[in-house]
Amino acid sequence: MTKQELLKTHFGYDTFREGQEAVIDALLAGKDVLAVMPTGAGKSICYQVPALMMKGITLVISPLISLMKDQVRSLNQAGISAAYLNSSLTQGQYFTALRYAKAGRYPVIYVAPERLTTEAFLDFALSADISMIAVDEAHCVSQWGQDFRPSYLKIEEFVAQLPKRPVISAFTATATKEVREDIARLLDLRDPFCTTTGFDRENLYFAVKTPKDKYKEVHDYIMEHPDDSGIIYCLTRKLVEEVCGKLIRDGISATRYHAGLSDEERRNNQDDFIYDRCHVMVATNAFGMGIDKSDVRYVIHYNMPKNMEGYYQEAGRAGRDGDPAECILLYGGKDVVTNQYLIERGQENLEMDAATQQLIRERDQERLRQMTFYCFTHDCLREYILKYFGEYGKSYCGSCLNCQTEFEEKDITEEAGAMVRCVQSCGQRYGVNVILDTIRGASTAKIRQYHMEENPAYGDCAKIPARKLRQIFNYLVLRDYLALTDDGYTIVKLTGSSESLLDGEKHLTMKMPKEQEPKRKEKRSRLSKASAGELGEQDEPLFQRLRALRLEIAREEKIPPYMVFSDKTLIHMCILKPGNEEEMFNVTGVGRYKFEKYGKRFIDAVQNM
Ligand code: ADP
Ligand code: ZN
Predict the structure, then answer these.
(1) Which ligand is nearest to the CA of 384?
(2) Is the C-beta atom of 294 inside 6 A of ligand 1?
(3) pLDDT band at 514, cuts 50/70/90?
(4) Could you tell me the distance, in angstroms and rounded to a whole number, from the CA of residue 388 to the centre of ligand 2?
(5) How far is the CA of 392 from the centre of ligand 2 (A)?
(6) pLDDT tens, 402-419?
């Protein structure tokens, strides 16, 4: 079969996406490949299709067990025989899989990097016909990457032992130059074909918000999108517990994921989310790598993450199916402090010398700074992201919060002065809320308890809305006029620059959103835009019916619903209303194997509507 035929037969797609075909052609011509593609761009097809066209076995090296399982299951769904070899198998299962592998049963085998140089695996590999090695998440080989894994360094050692050098392809979503160079060097790629696919994900909407009450913001958002699946990322396990607990208390079907849970619980919770038994996943960044739930409609960051690489990767888990999805970051001044703490602490247990550790820490600090600027920019957010990854964006995308907001330059000299005065005269002992409540002249229990009514700045900014004061406060922290500490409780401190604001001589301005409702963004709905705009209200019942059928099949087969068919495929069915086999093949995402399994039931459902 040709590559086009394979794409249609196994995956049900008619055309390759940007970048895929060039990578496939290079691999088939025997060239090594280094492909940088953003999350959701479709990396797997780049090595899966050539794997089916090459004579021998393709080994896919992948860092995470969940990732391998998911991929293998998807391949099996597509009628491709594949297996994985990792520590989740019992010894018996492992040896059985190796035996089948030896017998040539699997054209594609996923393997964990730690396994490569073990005796049992080498015994297999040395006698097998391995035609390609595909290294997924290849940035894990680099110490400059954000997820360095020492076991990735074994890959080269392994390849060197093989009797015949296979073609090597490396895939990653991390684009920085250092990482790219490391990948090429440490995997010993030979004159590789290098490609970088556009980082822009047009279907994603970006926003940064600084709500006073983050929980309420999240809660309200979820209530407005009751049918959608979404992920809420938090910086710490503690916060995951707290937010998830509150959501459940408020009647929302949420579940959670972080490294502090047992393997079993993590697996169960992840499945609940993937199988649509729970709509909302609250998680630390431990969740998500390799989870191809293509219909995640929103990713909300409860805290600012520690770098743009991480942010874009996590946010990019929204809308992999290409339909509109939203990425919202909720910024709070404390996020910077927490991240700083995590950076300081995070490196200690890695096997690196002190100088390298120091260098990495400095890089992390710089990355954190860039991340913070994202939260404060008034320019197009999409452009900021693309620039960060070395691409040119348009200065106006029209589908991020900043592009939809009008800003104006405001004099904030008075407010800034009041804040500094307040902090100074209370002896730098209190947190943000106390300071802001004081200058607003509020009369809360805390204000009375700390006698803040007697503070000279009390009520100085009584006319300014709390939201604005918070923005100004965050701006002062960003510009180093005030600082936050983290000794269990965040306290506002003065800095070397604070004094310059005390007497009001120095004029300070900042850009602020104009006082008007931002243009109401088009309501995101599957009936609009990316789903081709053709699905009318009248097709909603059919869509619901097909969804129900999909869920029924998923339960029968114990696979996630999106592995039966994606939303996009169901929508296309609603539009085309296929009545026979031939018409069904015109639906995107319907390949031969899936047709044979499910085609008839879906045709019946469409026809009996
Ligand atoms: P990545 O690993 O780059 O994050 P995946 O390989 O998981 O992305 O692919 C993301 C999604 O895009 C999957 O649902 C996949 O089936 C889909 N996809 C990949 N290639 C194509 C294509 N040529 N046409 C349509 N959908 C595709
Ligand atoms: Zn924009």
Answers:
(1) 2
(2) yes
(3) confident
(4) 14
(5) 13
(6) 999 888 888 999 999 999
Q: Does 203 sit in the ligand 1 pocket, CB within 6 Å?
A: no
> pTM for the complete prediction?
0.72
- Using the atom order of ligand 1, give the atom closest to the CA of residue 562: 14
DSSP state of 400: B
- Collapsing DSSP states into helix, strand and coil, what is residue 255? strand
The residue whose CA has the least distance to atom 9 of ligand 1 is: 42
pLDDT band at 290 (very low <50, low <70, confident <90, very high): low
Q: Tell me: the pLDDT tens digits for 127-173?
A: 999 999 999 999 999 877 667 888 999 999 999 999 999 999 999 98
Question: Mapped to the 3 state alphabet, what secondary structure does 540-606 carry?
Answer: HHHHHHHHHHHHHHHHHHCCCHHHHCCHHHHHHHHHHCCCCHHHHHCCCCCCHHHHHHHHHHHHHHH
Closest-CA residue, ligand 1 atom 13, reads 42
Q: Do domains 3-196 and 204-388 have the same CATH topology?
A: yes
The CATH number, out of the four listed (3.40.50.300, 3.40.50.2300, 3.40.30.10, 3.30.565.10), of the domain defined by the range 3-196 = 3.40.50.300
Annotation: CATH topology of 537-607:
DNA polymerase; domain 1 (1.10.150)
Q: Is the separation of the CB atoms in 163 and 212 below 8 Å?
A: no
Distance CA 302, CA 516 (A): 25
pLDDT bucket at 526, cuts 50 / 70 / 90: very low
Domain ranges in the chain are 3-196, 204-388, 408-513, 537-607
What are 20-25's contacts with CB under 8 Å, separation 24+? Answer: 20/45, 20/46, 20/49, 22/193, 22/195, 23/169, 23/193, 23/195, 24/49, 24/50
204-388: CATH architecture:
3-Layer(aba) Sandwich (3.40)
Q: Binning pLDDT at 50, 70 and 90, where does residue 420 land?
A: very high
At the second CATH level, the architecture of 408-513 is Orthogonal Bundle (1.10)
Dist. CA 566 → ligand 1 center (Å): 11
